[in-house]
Design goal:
Two copies of one chain form a homodimer. Chain A is an alpha+beta fold. Chain A has two domains: 145 residues, Thiol Ester Dehydrase, Chain A; 102 residues, Thiol Ester Dehydrase, Chain A (Roll), CATH 3.10.129.10. In chain A, 16% of the residues lie in helices and 39% in strands. The first copy, chain A, contains four helices and ten strands. In chain A, strands 1-3-4-5-2-7-10-9-8-6 form a ten-stranded antiparallel sheet. In chain A, helix 1 packs antiparallel against helix 3. The longest helix of chain A is centred in the N-terminal third of the chain and has 18 residues. The first copy, chain A, is globular. Chains A and B meet through helix 1 and helix 3 of A and helix 1 and helix 3 of B.
Chain lengths: 247, 247
Amino acid sequence: MNNPIVGIYAFPLEAYTSDFRGKPTLHAIGGVLMQAATRHAEERGFGYSAMNEQNRAWVLSRLAIEMRRFPINDHQIRVRTWVPEINRLFTERCFSLNDSAGNHIGDARSLWAAIDLETRKPTVITDMPGFDRFICREPSAIENVRKIPPIKENCTVESFTVKYSDLDINGHLNSIKYIEHLSDTFPVEMYQQQDVRRFEICYTAEGRYGAQLDILKKEDHDGVFVMEIKNSEKTICSARVSWGINR
Amino acid sequence: MNNPIVGIYAFPLEAYTSDFRGKPTLHAIGGVLMQAATRHAEERGFGYSAMNEQNRAWVLSRLAIEMRRFPINDHQIRVRTWVPEINRLFTERCFSLNDSAGNHIGDARSLWAAIDLETRKPTVITDMPGFDRFICREPSAIENVRKIPPIKENCTVESFTVKYSDLDINGHLNSIKYIEHLSDTFPVEMYQQQDVRRFEICYTAEGRYGAQLDILKKEDHDGVFVMEIKNSEKTICSARVSWGINR
């Protein structure tokens, strides 16, 4: 328990994990954030194992990623992560991303709930002993997820069925797979000229195995897309994807 | 260039990268093999960068993976990799997999061609200076990919379009994504009771962006499936997937 409050982790970026441009995909970056979060929490006694013993699990509720620059053919990404705030039902986690030369390339912030594995309802976080020792009041460099307006029109651009590879250890659609499915609705021609500058997602319900899901997409204003993933009954996530010229 | 002939690499396994059973997926294992191969070659002067300077790229031609046991909720996988043989147009690469406690959990072997990036044809490998210094005559613990019979019936079980996330740095369907798409045709009920014991794949043509691909599947004999991925003209890969009871 002598770990510093802020965690710093390096992840290799291999030719194999990059997209056709030699840049890491947004879901690869999301994966790296999840790994940094997992390690930071695990090393400090409030990770997957400790939560599992209490029959609880961390569930990602919101995530915003802002990239200043996507490194090309770099060999490493470095992540600083810390917990700036704990509320009764939610805890925030911030991230700052550097390339292998130490340049600041992006930031992210996330909101997590600790659900009870049986009821699937959020539990009180503030009762976790010692958790508050790891709070670092450094604010995030980026804005929180802003309200994402519901899509009222029928703007389905893609449908998919939740399969084996989509599932996480809780048996639901993996938080990062959402990002991959959303990213895949944009044509490669767009990736040739632009990068996703800011990505925001709110997870509102669980994607279950075998569910047929629709992806809705609508250009809100120039280069900014509002998106939803829906099952037959309701919206399971909403997202906003903001594009900008390649840097 | 003072690297040992055999490379040994450790990769973290995170809760985030495991399947609903807490086991690494076969495509995650394939990814780890590709990363070990990339690092081993790069460190010894015949990797992606050196090949790119010669306007060539390594292309995976065949891969066989045999798993004795899939680790559950382990935190690390260790890969030994070496090149047992170089022929005029192909080079073989072997792998041996250990869990974090050092137990032998699986093996793999692969065949690679070095294609010319313009003509997309295989080039002569034996002319690469110094490459033969890294040959280790240790044979693979497992059998090579055996001949996979063509599927003559119309056994299409799934179709998909090659999207952004499917592409590798050469702009073609990523070798490991084939494994993910093939794995997804099996229901989770099968993964609950069984594991893939042996997986074999032959890559015969490139999957291009936007192509509509069909997956064909046929149970050859008890628990052994022959599979193909086809575009409108031809078979781009064939595979054999052999299942066995969970260990």
